[in-house]
Write a structure and sequence with these properties.
about 325 residues; 3-stranded antiparallel β-sheet
Length: about 325
């Protein structure tokens, strides 16, 4: 499998990048640093003498030294590097490359696992769906409560658990390091939205149209549409607003609208064009929506790149159409 071979090569490249960032350079390390790496005093002295005559250009050159045996080389080969020391800018650039490559390996197996990408997307859609539901339906307890019904709460929580479990199972079945993949995903989708949500409830909401949903849908038609060309907030043009109506809170299926919006906002594809209104919309809620929208752009790029590498011929359609 060519994809598996390339995935293995990229994992090795990731290890090399990590070594170049944090590894001990044979040509620049002090004797104490070489001792801490695992060399014996005699080996350290021979390394120092050798690099004084000619700098090391590759790690296998260590085996040419009399005092360094194969067991020592195997023990220290993942802790040292050979060659010129990296400047600060080069080290920062290598760290950025290491981070980007780590994300690609953890979230898509370097574009070789569509199910891994789908699993991460399913967890993201479920997480933001319940966040949008909380923001829209759980507004205040007093003086006049604005709360979801018990049935809606049960449906929302049970569906969130079901979608999250399904996405997590897909990750565990396809990822080499599922816990690291989940940790990476959590770092991307949890801290900033949770901070925004906490600020929303801490500040409270006291504005007009408080008893009307923040989310509106286009009522003129229902058809599958590619929504990548539109933004998540409706325009201010008054005649354009007439096409959009607030989603209905008094329907038993209302909770589906929040997953619909989360799906549209991430994948830019859907039947219903659900957006957030532009009037009396708190800036923190708008920030939450825009954060997922930006993640969606990155997710679509990752998904299409993965498809182009896993579905034969699709890369021709994507790149040359």
């Amino acid at each position: 499998d060519a994809n598996q071979v390339e995935y293995t090569m990229e994992r090795l490249r990731l290890r090399e990048l990590g070594q170049s960032i944090v590894g001990t350079n044979l040509n620049a390390a002090s004797p104490n640093e070489l001792l801490q790496v695992g060399f014996s005093p005699a080996q350290v002295q021979e390394v120092v003498d050798r690099r004084a005559q000619q700098p090391f250009r590759s790690l296998p050159e260590l085996l040419a030294l009399q005092e360094v045996d194969l067991a020592t080389y195997i023990k220290i080969r993942n802790r040292v590097i050979a060659g010129e020391s990296l400047a600060i800018f080069s080290r920062l650039l290598a760290a950025v490359n290491w981070l980007g490559l780590s994300l690609l390996l953890l979230l898509s197996r370097y574009g070789t696992s569509s199910w891994l990408v789908f699993g991460g997307g399913l967890v993201t859609i479920a997480w933001f769906g319940i966040l949008f539901w909380l923001v829209d339906r759980l507004r205040r307890f007093r003086p006049k409560p604005i709360l979801p019904t018990l049935a809606e709460t049960i449906w929302m929580l049970s569906s969130f658990v079901g979608l999250t479990v399904a996405g997590t199972l897909a990750i565990f079945r396809t990822a080499d390091q599922p816990w690291l993949t989940l940790t990476c995903l959590a770092i991307v989708i949890i801290p900033i939205p949770t901070l925004l949500l906490g600020l929303i409830y801490w500040r409270g909401r006291y504005h007009d149209l408080l008893e009307v949903s923040y989310f509106v849908e286009e009522g003129s038609l229902r058809q599958i549409r590619l929504l990548i060309g539109r933004l998540p907030v409706i325009p201010r043009f008054s005649m354009f607003r007439e096409r959009y109506l607030p989603i209905l809170w008094d329907r038993r299926w209302n909770w589906l609208n929040y997953y619909d919006f989360s799906f549209n906002n991430l994948l830019k594809l859907g039947f219903n064009d659900v957006r957030v209104r532009d009037e009396h919309l708190p800036g923190l809620i708008s920030s939450l929506v825009w954060y997922q929208w930006c993640l969606g752009i990155l997710y679509i790029a990752l998904l299409l790149w993965t498809f182009s590498r896993t579905i034969p011929g699709l890369n021709l359609l994507i790149y040359f159409r």
